[in-house]
Amino acid sequence: MIKKVLQEKYGAGFGNYPLDKTKPPIIFVHGAGGSYLMWIPQVEYFKKDFNPVAVDLPGHSLSPPPACKEISGYADFVLALADALELEKFFLVGLSMGGAISQEIALIGPERILGLVLISTGARLRVLPELFKIIRENWEGYLKLFPQWAFSPNAPAQVVEQSVKELATRSPEVVEADFRACDGFDRMEEVKNIHLPTLIISADQDRLTPPKYSDYLHQQISGSELVRIEGAGHVVNLEKPGEVNQALEQFFQKVLASK
Predict the structure, then answer these.
(1) How far from 9 is each of 1, 48, 58, 59, CA to CA, in Å?
(2) Cα(195)–Cα(2) distance, integer angstroms
(3) 33 φ/ψ sector (left φ>0, alpha ψ -120 to 50, else beta)
(4) DSSP three-state, residue 147
(5) With 90 as the cut, is the pLDDT of residue 173 above it?
(6) Of 113, 126, 216, 232, which has the fewest beta carbons less than 10 angstroms from its beta carbon?
(7) Residues in a beta bridge with 113
(8) Do the beta carbons of residue 93 and residue 26 sit within 8 Å?
C-alpha cells in the first residue's frame, strides 16, 4: 500500500522497495518532458549498492497533474518525496531541468544533500520563444525536432526511438509548462553559494546546454568536479550510460569515503 501511494502521489520509480536503510539513497530528477524511465540505466546499475529512486515530476508518467510552472514548485515536490520516503540525506542527480531543480534544492536545503550531480544543465535556462509556439501549434513537429536537439548524430537509433515514443505520451501542456519553468530559472548570481560536494557532467555535442554552461557552473561552485563526455548530446546518460555511471560511481564513493 505504501508503495502504491508513493507511486500514485509522487511518481517514484524505485530500484529497490522497501528501501534498504543501510544503503545510501540517490534521487534522480528528469528533464523537461521526461519521466523516471530516462534513468533506467542508472537505476539498474546502482540498485545493488545504493537505493536509487527516479522521481516522476507532477504531470509526468506515474505522477498526477498539474505540472509546475516554476522550478521552485518542482523542488518542493522532490523534497516532499524525500520526506515521504523518510530520507534524511541523499545524493541528488538532475539532468537539464532536473539540474535546475537540483540547484534550487541545493540552495534551499543543502543539509539534505550528501552530494550534488548536475548533468547537461546550467545556472540559467533560457528557452527560444519559437519553441513554445511549436509545442502549442505543431506537437508532431516538436516530436520530430526533438532528436536533433536531444541527441548527437551518433546516438543509438533504439535509444532515440524509445525516447521519442516516451515523450509522445506527455501532453503538450505539460511540456510547455516545463519549458516555462526552465525559461524563468536564473541562478547565475546565487549558484556560487552552493557549498556541497558537486559533480558536473556535460557532453561535447550538447546543443541545448552547450559545454560553456557547465564550465560556468564549475567556475562558480567551489571545489566542484567537471567531467566532459565526448561524442554525446544532451541526454548523455542514455547515449553514454557506461561513462556516466562510472563518473557517478567514482563521485559517490569519493564522497562516502570522506564522511
Answers:
(1) 12, 26, 9, 11
(2) 34
(3) left
(4) helix
(5) yes
(6) 126
(7) 90
(8) yes
Three cell numbers at 230? 565526448
Would you state the pLDDT for residue 1?
A: 41
Cβ–Cβ < 8 Å for 7, 36: no
Q: Distance between CA atoms of 164 and 144, rounded to whole angstroms?
A: 8
Joined together, the cell numbers standing for residue 7 give 507511486
pLDDT above 70 for 13 = no
Rounded CA-CA distance 55/77 in Å is 10
Q: Omega of the bond prior to 64 within 30 degrees of 0, cis? A: no
Query: Tens of pLDDT along 25-69?
Result: 999 999 999 999 999 999 999 999 999 999 999 999 888 889 999
What is d(CA 81, CA 253) in angstroms, rounded to the nearest whole number? 24
- CA 165-13-127 angle, to 5 degrees, is 55
> Of 146, 106, 98, which Cα lies nearest the Cα of 122?
98
Q: How many domains does the chain have?
A: 1
Segment (H or E) for 74: helix 71-84
For residue 59, give the CATH number of its domain.
3.40.50.1820
CA distance 29 to 4: 20
CB 212 within 8 A of CB 204: no
Domain, as residue range, for 204: 2-257
Confidence tier at 140 by pLDDT (50, 70, 90): very high
